Amino acid sequence: MTTARTSWLLYLVGSLFVFGSWVDLVPTGLGWIGWVMALVGWAMGTRHDQSDHGHTAVSKAEQIEKLDRLRQQTVLTEEEFQREKQRLLKQP
């Protein structure tokens, strides 16, 4: 099961528990558990995890090397290369 599907399922089931507790269909304790489930589902859904998008972690040095190759092939101008290199170096 993917992260997106798991987060949606937690959010949906948690929300149903919360709403069910409001209309006395489920015990209040399950309503509180529903809040936690919904929050966890929401947090999982809003997380920006690169592994879910098929990207591999690439070091800044490798990214700069790739930019340099593009500059040497005249795909990027010197100005574009310097701007992107500075942007990469400023990232945490």
Relative helix content:
over 70%
Percent of residues in beta strands: under 5%
Number of structurally distinct domains: 2
- End-to-end separation in angstroms reads 31 Å
Largest sheet descriptor: none
Mean pLDDT: 82
Specify Rg, calculated over alpha carbons: 23 Å
Tally of contiguous helical segments: 4
Which secondary-structure class do the elements indicate?
Answer: mainly alpha
From N to C, what is the helix and strand string?
Answer: HHHH
Shape: rod-shaped
* Uncertain parts: none
Q: Tally of extended strands?
A: 0
Topology:
Layout: H1 3-22, H2 28-46, H3 60-72, H4 78-90
Helix pairs in contact: 1-2, 3-4
What distinguishing features does this structure have?
mainly alpha; 2 domains; 92 residues
In words, what does this structure look like?
- The chain is mainly alpha-helical.
- The chain has 2 domains: 3-53; 60-90, no CATH class.
- Helices cover 71% and strands 0% of the residues.
- It has 4 helices and no strands.
- Helix 1 runs antiparallel to helix 2 (28-46) and helix 3 packs antiparallel against helix 4.
- The protein is rod-shaped, with a radius of gyration of 23 Å.
Concise synopsis of the structure shown:
With 92 residues, the protein is mostly helical.
